[in-house]
Amino acid sequence: MRLTDSYDAYLVDLDGVVWRGEEPIAGAPEAITALRDMGKRVVFVTNNASRSPRDYAAKLMRLRIPTEPADIISSAHAVIEQLRAIGLKPGDRVHVCGTPALGQFVAAHRFVATGDTHDVKALVVAWNPQMVMDDIRRAADVARSGVPFIGANRDATYPTENGLLPGSGAIIAAIEVASAHTATIVGKPEPKLFRVALERAGAAPERTLVVGDRADSDAAGARAAGLAVALVLTGVTTERDLPLLPIRPDYILSSICEITSSSGEGALPASAEDEDQDHPGDEPADVREERSPGLFDLP
Ligand SMILES: [Mg+2]
């Protein structure tokens, strides 16, 4: 059975799944096109709040994946939801420690994004490859003042064509240590981002598959949102990591291309531990719902 028989909507991570830095993952544009040609809904879900949905759509277009900005959900969307959830109102000032694109996104949602440290109602921290020590100093000053401290995600690293860069989690950790205040994380592995994306996809949760490259954010977040997840090995997770995954995905794929491959043979909950447990590794996808929810959780 093919994965595409079991799922109508695909919530697809970007970094390490569709691209690595500025380079597309081999076959990813064709796989996305094939899914759409089959009438499947594809929404891109990224923990990376450093670019706007419009920037992401433009990058996807450059990689031959025409996409509307509305089909891209980033942790910036979850940041906005959180600012509203904690009671901030239009016009309230928010210290943004991140890229100019994140500041513009916050401003577009009628908050005042600022680098000032005084008279702000919240602190937002996200990945920024241009970040300098002074950014961390000012963010720590704001955190120390006791206002709500919102972090995009705790991804330790960011995969590029030149290797792994320190990620949003590394930046947030620096500010937490410097301020002795802890961030509230809104991106993956929290379920909020997937819930926003699921609503955007307009699909039933049981017919939706998350596709990501990180067990600690994509797989954990999918599990928290009650969604099935396929882990691909084109990004952060490698074959060597599989025995030690903190969350067991429903499927392990060499790349996103395997979703639309003719046989789907690689679309198995493959890991060494599976062989030792009481369920076969080649179980068809539609049997998954009959398993106990915690079956794939490692002890
Ligand atoms: Mg990723």
CATH evolutionary superfamily of the largest domain:
HAD superfamily/HAD-like
Give the class-level CATH name of the largest domain: Alpha Beta
Order of helices and strands: HEEEHEHEHEHEEHEEEHEHEHEEH
Calculate the terminal CA-CA distance, rounded to whole Å: 29 Å
Provide the number of structural domains: 2
Major sheet details:
6 strands, parallel
Structural class: alpha/beta
Helix count, per DSSP?
10
Strand order of the largest sheet: 5-4-1-13-14-15
Strand composition percent: 15-25%
Q: Detail the poorly predicted runs.
A: 270-299
Mean pLDDT: 88
Ligand identities: magnesium ion
Shape: globular
Helix content class: 25-40%
Rounded to the nearest angstrom, the radius of gyration is: 19 Å
CATH architecture of the largest domain: 3-Layer(aba) Sandwich
CATH topology of the largest domain: Rossmann fold
Please report the total strand number as a whole number: 15
